[in-house]
């Protein structure tokens, strides 16, 4: 039964450091699923569902929270740049454009091998350093940052998020860090649009136009005026992003393309019921936990909005 992957000896070597749990006693397989030491029941292998729920909750925290931070920070950076610089204020150094394009080509070529993808940064960094020693490389091109950010966000949003992530993980099953990076890079478009709108509203204020006319550097305007006025947008978006990533991680585990099988997950616990349709507790407890988590986050969103 698929339930043997929920908790087991292999969890000790999992990427999230699941505690070592001794294998179940084979004599307990034919025992009733509920008992004094198994309040939430066991599967056909005698593994405790309550322990699997705890491990799945820890997996959700270790995946959704860092991925949310990645999505919000990247969205804040992209939205601030698009709203503050617009289409006329962006200047892209030639060496950065060439090195960035080389890095993207390297990432695309090494996409099937997550551990080797970082090697693409080595030649890109060397090209960036060499071009920095030339006059041509130090010059800059005008770059429509606002149009580029909106175009990239529209392109990513035109593909359903689940399909986009499934295509990425179908190449090779990612590790914990790879899954966090993948989910974060897939969910930055919503925060970026909100931060861009808040930045445009702040930039239009007369005091900011006067500060620009006075020659105050742009980074000081961002630090003192733009970012303090856009933080509330990210705070409102925070619980919604966490809820989105919780559902996405659970769906990937349910489909069997998420984290390795030795990592506990609510989605894998839900998938185990397909091989044991009569074991209702395998879907009742993780389903209740998932619905309760999503509703709690939704309640936080409603309170912040109203």
Automatic annotation (TrEMBL):
Pfam families tied to this protein: BPD_transp_1
Residues that span the membrane, as ranges: 60-85, 97-130, 150-171, 234-260, 280-301
Keywords tagged on the record: Cell membrane, Membrane, Transmembrane, Transmembrane helix, Transport
PROSITE patterns, per the entry: ABC_TM1
Main location: membrane
Gene Ontology biological process terms, A to Z: transmembrane transport
Stored SUPFAM superfamilies: MetI-like
Domain of life the protein comes from: Bacteria
Coiled-coil blocks: none
Compartments in which it is found: Cell membrane
InterPro entries membership: BP-dependent_transpt_permease (IPR050366), MetI-like (IPR000515), MetI-like_sf (IPR035906)
Stretches the record annotates as Disordered: 1-34
Boundaries of every ABC transmembrane type-1 domain copy: 110-301
Membrane-topology descriptor: Multi-pass membrane protein
Family under the similarity heading: Belongs to the binding-protein-dependent transport system permease family.
Protein name (record): ABC transmembrane type-1 domain-containing protein
Organism: Hymenobacter amundsenii
Lineage start: Bacteria, Pseudomonadati, Bacteroidota, Cytophagia, Cytophagales
């Amino acid at each position: 039964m698929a339930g043997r992957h929920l908790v087991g000896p292999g969890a000790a070597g999992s990427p999230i450091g699941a505690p070592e749990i001794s294998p179940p006693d084979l004599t307990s397989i034919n025992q009733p699923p509920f008992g004094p030491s198994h309040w939430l029941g066991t599967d056909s292998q005698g593994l405790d569902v309550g322990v699997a729920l705890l491990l799945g909750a820890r997996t959700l925290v270790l995946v959704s929270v860092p991925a949310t931070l990645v999505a919000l920070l990247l969205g804040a950076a992209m939205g601030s740049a698009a709203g503050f610089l617009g289409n006329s204020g962006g200047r892209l150094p030639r060496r950065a454009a060439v090195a960035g394009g080389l890095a993207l080509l390297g990432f695309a070529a090494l996409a099937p091998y997550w551990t080797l993808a970082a090697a693409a940064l080595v030649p890109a960094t060397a090209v960036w350093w060499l071009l920095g020693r030339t006059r041509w490389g130090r010059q800059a091109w005008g770059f429509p940052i606002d149009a580029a950010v909106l175009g990239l966000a529209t392109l990513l949003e035109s593909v359903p998020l689940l399909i986009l992530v499934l295509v990425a993980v179908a190449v090779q099953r990612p590790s914990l860090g790879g899954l966090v990076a993948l989910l974060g890079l897939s969910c930055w478009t919503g925060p970026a649009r909100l931060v861009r709108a808040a930045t445009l509203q702040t930039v239009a204020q007369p005091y900011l136009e006067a500060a620009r006319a006075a020659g105050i550097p742009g980074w000081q305007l961002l630090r003192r005026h733009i970012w303090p006025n856009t933080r509330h947008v990210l705070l409102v978006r925070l619980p919604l992003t966490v809820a989105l990533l919780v559902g996405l991680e659970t769906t990937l585990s349910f489909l069997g393309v998420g984290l390795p099988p030795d990592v506990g997950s609510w989605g894998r616990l839900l998938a185990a019921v397909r091989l044991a349709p009569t074991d209702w507790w395998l879907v009742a407890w993780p389903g209740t936990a998932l619905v309760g988590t999503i509703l709690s986050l939704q309640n936080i969103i409603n309170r912040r909005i109203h």
